[in-house]
Sequence to fold (409 residues):
Amino acid sequence: MAAITASREEKPEPTKQTPPPAPAVESAPKTITLRISRSNPSENSAAKFDEFQIPVQKWTTVLEAILHVKQNLDHSVAVRYSCRQASCGSCGMKINGRPRLACYTKVSELDSNVITVEPMSNFPIIRDLAVDFKQLFSTHKKMKPFIINEGSEVQPGAKEFIQTPNDLEKFLQFSYCIKCGLCNSACPTMATDKSFIGPQGLAQAYRYTADNRDEGKKGRLKIVDQSHGIWRCHFAGSCSNVCPKGVDPAMAIQLLRGYLLGFRK
Amino acid sequence: MAERVANREGIKGMANPTRYGLERVAYWLQRISGLGLLAYLIGHIYETSTILNGKIAWNNMLSLTETPGGHLVLVLVIGMCVFHTGNGIRLMISEGGKGVGKPGQPEYPYRASSLNSKQRLCIWVSIALAALAMMYGAGVLFGD
Fold:
């Protein structure tokens, strides 16, 4: 026992070496001008821009800059947001003329000291930066965004559908859609055709059509094969260009056309 | 008023080729060249129909195309025709689901497979062919 004690005394515990402190991140706050589009269609007031001087760091997002305005400068700014991590699809808006998610766009990546935020185009304005998603959601529902299969109900004795990784890859990408509406806002056809289904709806029609558990292909193809449907897409690719989740609606639309033209089964 | 509330970009937004990369530029060029060729077709039908009014009327009309302005229009028509054909073939193939890539797991930073290098190459080739055809046409029309 004593020997053990002695050996402990002889062998002092090595001192834990604390890692050297990380070098301080150099990030001098700078000030930018945030121009926010202000409009209230219910009061028939003309749209105008209010300008605010905002201190930002290199990690500040556009949403944080807008929330800084709401908290400190003008609490009446209307903006919709929720998750702040590009998952809910609520904070879509035009930032310096291009549809983006405000929570996913850092001020520093815009390379400009003046940032202009406007409501997304091709959506009715509720107020300021908040737009109405009614048409987007109703179009989404029209595409029957669910598996249509009589045998899919969970019943006693029913077996699960087995899908290979290849089966999954055919539609997985398109199931990442967060319904933010950026694709519809960038689409040149949506700019002029109010009845057009839009890239979001068409991509979702493909997502379920390509799923080998689904048996609703015929019905869905009938829905998209109409005058304001899939044939109004001219493959400008802007929808895929702005998608924040890598969904690639332009590809989905062309592949869906492949079904209608008989190139795909 | 209804359009302002609906907040649609309208023709101005549709016709804006900036903001969304080369594919949007190609879309714009395809539309512009299509409209240009349609206008040329109508003009061409009108031009050739003057032959019904006799030789003098026909020669008067023909002399219009033999001015520098008329030659410039023809050079533009050559360019529009070549670009519209080249890019149109790309679109016809792509819109059947060919050459737009395969669906897969998207990885950050997301690059859309449908806007791939083959598509871009086809667009640039269409532009280059149109430019070459215009240069050749200008050489023939404005040359000695």
